[in-house]
Amino acid sequence: MNKLNGLILTGGRSTRMGRDKSTMIYHRKPQREHLTDLLIPYCDAVFWSVNAEQAIDITTPDQPVIIDAFVLPGPLNGILSAFQFDPSAAWLVVACDMPLLSAQSLTALVEGRNLAKMATVFYDSDGQLPEPLLGIYEPAFGPILHQAFLKGAFSPRQILRQNDIQLLNVPDSSELANVNDPAAKAALGL
């Protein structure tokens, strides 16, 4: 089995939130640190996927980061950059704006992992489409993602839909909630 690295996607612009979503405090610490703690039991190493501006501000010297290597918006940049950094690893990808994520879903994801598929992901909160921001991307999927990007595809969800992947039912769909603006954060009560 390939090594499994964790990748916390933090490189977005957070324009709707008005501040870096990865530094929001939900569990008495910045969200990116909370997610790191959640992923450590499942992964060989946990990386923060950051943009160039964020990389300047990170003051945690022992926290490994992967700086976005491509000029494109969205989470595909972080995932492609991770495969460029280590193409032989599988990547357990988590978006930084899922504050309700727990070990329950991570355990279900890792236990449901199908190594014969390109990726293992949950159905989204509507139960219809793959959720690209919480999943395991196998090493064989790296070149496919890169080729899709070169052909102008930028949506990880669409790329997943076009390939042989393992789809799982999430134990609790509320854990997939993305908190992207102050109103959504306030609604959580965290």
UniProtKB/TrEMBL annotation:
BP term (GO), one: Mo-molybdopterin cofactor biosynthetic process
Example GO molecular function: metal ion binding
UniProt-annotated binding residues for GTP: 9-11, 21, 68, 97
Domain MobA-like NTP transferase: 6-163
Keyword Magnesium carried by entry: yes
Organism: Spirosoma pollinicola
Cofactor: Mg(2+)
Main location per the UniProt record: cytoplasm
Alphabetic keyword roster: Cytoplasm, GTP-binding, Magnesium, Metal-binding, Molybdenum cofactor biosynthesis, Nucleotide-binding, Nucleotidyltransferase, Transferase
Encoding gene, per UniProt annotation: mobA
EC number: 2.7.7.77
Gene Ontology CC annotation, any one: cytoplasm
HAMAP family: MobA
InterPro entries, alphabetized: MobA-like_NTP_Trfase, Molybde_CF_guanTrfase, Nucleotide-diphossugar_trans
Subcellular location as annotated: Cytoplasm
Similarity comment text for this entry: Belongs to the MobA family.
Catalytic reaction equation(s): Mo-molybdopterin + GTP + H(+) = Mo-molybdopterin guanine dinucleotide + diphosphate
Recorded domain comment: The N-terminal domain determines nucleotide recognition and specific binding, while the C-terminal domain determines the specific binding to the target protein.
Protein name as it appears in the record: Probable molybdenum cofactor guanylyltransferase
Function statement: Transfers a GMP moiety from GTP to Mo-molybdopterin (Mo-MPT) cofactor (Moco or molybdenum cofactor) to form Mo-molybdopterin guanine dinucleotide (Mo-MGD) cofactor.
